[in-house]
Design brief:
It is a single chain. This protein is an alpha/beta fold. The protein has one domain: Rossmann fold. Helices cover about 40% and strands about 20% of the residues. It has seven helices and nine strands. A six-stranded mixed β-sheet has the order 2-1-3-7-8-9, sandwiched between helices. A three-stranded antiparallel β-sheet has the order 4-5-6. The radius of gyration is 16 Å and the shape is globular.
Length: about 220
């Protein structure tokens, strides 16, 4: 039986374009693990689409890229996707990873109250630094990769059969390796700002709900 993986990839500003491009790097691995990708790309990253997919298909893993708040995550053009007290029950019995600001504060807690459900996200802003010259070529931006590499590791670890707890642990370790790498090099002004935000993201990445839940 083919599994389904749902991903939202809005692209309406530089931040979401970076998240979208770096998430696309995961597609080959996802397919190699036998998953059918339901890619809500650009304008398809809207409430109607995500509700339709989640109500009709059993998506084992949901990856949400986009801007967020304490109680919600958004899609293309910041249109609401999932909101606490509204349609959050659609993420029950799944593993959700939200690469968005602050959604773990309220939304993640609410979703994680459901049995056999795991929510991975950030309890404060998810911040990454990118270089202006790569704004139209996000994949080539190794500086942004210091942040988005560890983020992607959450997903790759899950796809290899490890638990939600292990996926978060490995991502934090990768953040730490990148921090240590910058500390042992000659720190430039860009690196100095990156250090602060790498520590920030590492500390704010959290797991709620069933810590032992895995994809298989």
């Amino acid at each position: 039986m083919v599994g389904h993986l749902l991903i939202t990839r809005p692209e309406h500003d530089y931040a979401t374009r970076y998240l979208s491009a770096w998430s696309e790097k995961l597609f080959d691995l996802i397919k190699s693990k036998g998953y059918l990708i339901i890619d809500l790309y650009r304008e398809r990253a809207n409430r109607k689409e995500i509700e339709s997919v989640l109500s009709k298909r059993n998506s084992d893993l949901v990856i949400i890229n986009g801007h967020g708040s304490d109680d919600a995550v958004a899609g293309h053009d910041n249109n609401l996707l999932i909101k606490a007290g509204d349609n959050s029950s659609l993420l029950s019995n799944k593993i959700t990873y939200a690469i968005s600001c602050r959604s773990a504060r309220v939304l993640g807690k609410e979703i994680a109250q459901n049995a056999e459900t795991a929510y991975i996200g950030y309890k404060d802003d998810f911040i990454f630094v990118y270089l202006e010259k790569y704004r139209t070529r996000p994949i080539e931006d190794k500086f942004a990769g210091l942040f988005l590499g560890p983020s992607n590791l959450v997903v790759t670890t899950l796809l290899k059969g490890h638990s939600a707890k292990e996926s978060v642990s490995r991502a934090r370790q990768e953040f730490l390796r990148n921090i240590q790498g910058l500390l042992t090099s000659k720190v430039k002004s860009d690196d100095s700002s990156a250090l602060r935000y790498l520590v920030w993201d590492m500390r704010n990445l959290v797991l709620q709900g069933d810590v032992n839940k895995s994809l298989f």
